Amino acid sequence: MELNTTKDAFDHVAKRQKLSSSKSQEVVDRVGHEIEQALAKIQASNDPLSPIDLKSILTELKLKLNTIGPLHQLEGLQKERNINLSKYPKLLEKSFNPDISKAYRNVDFDFHIVNQIIASHFYRQGLFDLGDCLIKEAGEPEAIAIRSHFLEMYQILEALKVKNLEPALNWITANREKLKQNGSTLELKLHRLQFLEIIQNGTKADALSYARTYLSPFASLHMNEFQRLVVCIIWVGKLDSCPHAELMAPAHWEEFTVELTQHFCRLVGQSSPSPLSVAITAGIEGLPTLLKLANVMAVKKQEWLAIKQLPVPVELGKEFQFHSIFVCPVSRDQGSEENPPMLMPCLHVLCKQSIMKLSKSSSRTFKCPYCPTEASAAQCRQLYF
C-alpha cells in the first residue's frame, strides 16, 4: 500500500512538472513569436525606417510583452513546481525509514548452508569465477558439486539466446525418460521452435522434411498441435496471413527457456528460483510491516526482538507460498503434527489444542468462536493439507 501511495505521489509530481514545463514553453514561444513579428515588420520595408516608425514598432512590442507578462507567469509556474517538488521528499521520509536495522533480528544461521546458497546464486548467474572464489575462501569444497550442473545449464541458456537448440536437445535426449516421468513436453516444444524457425527462414521442402522426421513421432499424442504446425507449411512466404501466426511469437522462446530451467533444476535437486533471490525479495516485501512493528513496540517500551512469534501477520505474495499451512484463528499457532487443524461440524477450523481448551479436555460441548453452533471434541475431524 505504501509503495502504491509513493508511486501515485511520484506520478502526480511528474504530471505537474510536465504540465509546468509545457506552460513555460508556451510562454517562451509567445514571446518569441511577438519578437519575430516585430523583426518581420522592420525587415519588410525596403526603405530604412524612420526613427518614429521604429519607435512605434518597438512600443507596440513592449505593450504586447507587458500583456503576456512572461516574467510573472514563469515565476508563478516555477513557484508551483517547487511546491510540488518540496512535498514529495517529505512523503518519502514518511514512507521509507532510513534505519532498516530496526527490523534486524539476530538469528543463528548455518553458515555452511548460507555459503552454499550464495555460491549457488553466483553459479546460476553465470558468475563461475566469483562462485569458485567464495567456495575457496569460505572453505566449502562440497559446494563445488553443483557447479558442473549450473555450468551445463548456463551453456544451454546462452545457446538459446542465439536460437541454437543443439545443447538443449542433447540434454533433453539424455534425460528423456526422467522428463517423461515428470510429464514434460520439452522435446516437442523444442522441435516446434526449430520447425517454426525453418518456416520463417527456410523452404517448404525443408519444413516438410523436418516435420516428418522430428514432429511426426508426437502426432499420436498431440494431434491438434501437430496439425496446427503442419498447416503453417502452406503459408511459407506469406506468414502474415497464416491463421497460426501466434506460434511464431518471440514469447514462446522465453517460455521455453523458463520451462527448461525449471525442469533442469528439478532433475538436479535444486529449486528453480534462486533461494537467495527469494529470501531477499521476501524480506523486502515484509520489511515495511516489521519496521512498523518495531516502531510501535518501541513507543510502548517493549523489545520486539525478544518475542518468539510476531503479533501481526506478514503478508507475502502467492509466489512465496511453497506449501499449505494453517494458522489457528484463536491461538494464532501454526498447525503441526502435534497440533493439527480440526474441522468442526459448522465447517469452521481450529487447531486441536484450541478445541481441547474450549471443551475443557473433551469434558463438555463448546460454542464455536465464529458462529452460534455448539460442538463437542468428538465431532471434530482432523484435516490434512
TrEMBL record:
Ranges where the RING-Gid-type domain occurs: 328-371
**Keyword entries, A-Z:** Cytoplasm, Metal-binding, Zinc, Zinc-finger
Query: CTLH domain: which residues?
Result: 149-206
GO biological process assignments: proteasome-mediated ubiquitin-dependent protein catabolic process
Q: Can you list the GO cellular component terms from the UniProt entry?
A: cytoplasm; GID complex; nucleus
Membrane-crossing residue ranges in chain numbering = none
Cell compartment(s), UniProt: Cytoplasm
Q: Which CDD domains match?
A: dRING_Rmd5p-like
Name one matching Pfam family.
CTLH
Protein name, UniProt field? Protein RMD5 homolog A-like
Species whose genome carries this gene: Herrania umbratica
Taxonomic lineage is: Eukaryota, Viridiplantae, Streptophyta, Embryophyta, Tracheophyta
The gene is: LOC110417786
